[in-house]
UniProtKB/TrEMBL annotation:
Subunit structure: Interacts with the elongator complex. Binds to calmodulin in a calcium-dependent manner.
GO molecular function, one term: ATP binding
UniProt KW DNA-binding keyword: no
Protein known as: Protein KTI12 homolog
A GO-annotated cellular component: elongator holoenzyme complex
Top-level taxonomy: Eukaryota, Viridiplantae, Streptophyta, Embryophyta, Tracheophyta
Keyword terms of this UniProt record: ATP-binding, Nucleotide-binding, tRNA processing
Length: 314
């Protein structure tokens, strides 16, 4: 449904903002499934996680993996962490795009002096706080979000040092509206990210399917070679792909000489075909005909033909 990235300096009010946003979302009818992912939920300590760069890199990796596992079309995930590096926010944005869900950033814009004071008070009260050295290092390396960047947009800004964060805060209300508003053809202010080929997850294929695919593709090549031999190296306009598949009418020029293809070219054709269909849930039953049209477009026509055939068969 959505991914919300809470961003801000250490001790800037991020956890308060995340809690208020989660409570406000629970007041919406129907109630969405909301989950907050932070260091404490993964049993990670603040000072230990940011003690050095390898530990910090490990923390980001653990958080990113947990977010990736949790994203779905029916839940709202709130990432309550520093998220202080723009490259990391871009990675989270890519996860949201791959899942085809909404995305936004909530920025707690708190001045450094207020953050230092709140961190000091937390330590005095025995609550979880940052060591001074770690705190100053994180403040220095913070990369402020910019709404002009797609991975920082839409950007909802809170000012905890000036205004108390509540469920009824206007910015929280705007974020809730964006995350829960129904999307239709008239919606212009809500954007649902669309996955691309680069971000789609490849479907897993078991060993038996790979064997059947290899067998079917080789059969197609053998049938084309046989059709050419029967045509005495001339043009061929009909070919049968097997007992349970229809005979296909087409024009196969004489220069289509599969018998003259080297083994390496044969393998290359099959590998290219496997790469093309690995992002789709494919029935082995249709491998024969789809591989034939793949070969056909390789020599004579556009890839759109293969995509059209795939859509018609699946």
């Amino acid at each position: 449904m959505a991914l919300v990235v809470i961003c801000g300096q250490p001790c800037s009010g991020k956890s308060t903002a995340a809690a208020c946003l989660a409570d406000a979302l629970q007041a919406v009818d129907p109630k969405p499934t909301v989950r907050i992912i932070d260091e404490s939920s993964l049993h990670l300590g603040r000072n230990q996680s940011y003690a050095d760069m390898p530990m910090e890199k490990n923390l980001r990796g653990v958080l990113r993996s947990e977010v990736d596992r949790s994203l779905s079309k029916s839940s709202i995930i709130i990432v309550d962490s520093l998220n202080n590096i723009k490259g990391y926010r871009y990675e989270l944005w890519c996860l949201a795009r791959a899942s085809g869900i909404r995305y936004c950033v909530v920025f707690c814009d708190t001045d450094e002096d207020s953050c230092r004071e709140w961190n000091r008070k937390r330590g005095e009260m025995g609550e979880s706080s940052y060591d001074t050295k770690i705190f100053e290092d994180l403040v220095r390396r913070f990369e402020k979000p910019d709404r002009r960047n797609r991975w920082d947009s839409p950007l909802f800004e809170l000012f905890p040092s000036k205004d108390e964060i509540r469920e009824s805060s206007p910015v929280i209300a705007d974020a809730v509206s964006y995350l829960t508003k129904k999307v239709d053809s008239k919606s212009r202010d809500v954007r649902v990210l669309q996955p691309t080929i680069a971000t789609q997850t490849a479907h897993t294929t078991d060993a038996n399917s790979l064997y059947e695919m290899d067998r079917a593709t080789q059969e197609v090549i053998n049938m084309i070679v046989e059709a050419q031999s029967q045509g005495l190296a001339g043009a061929v306009n009909r070919i049968s792909l097997g007992q349970h598949l229809p005979t296909i009418s087409f024009f196969l020029e004489a220069k289509w000489s599969f018998s003259s293809l080297m083994v390496s070219q044969d393998i290359s054709l099959k590998l290219d075909f496997c790469h093309l269909i690995k992002l789709h849930t494919f029935s082995v039953y249709y491998t024969d005909i789809c591989f034939f049209f793949f070969c056909h477009r390789t020599f004579t026509c556009d890839i759109a033909l293969f995509q059209f055939i795939h859509l018609r068969l699946t």
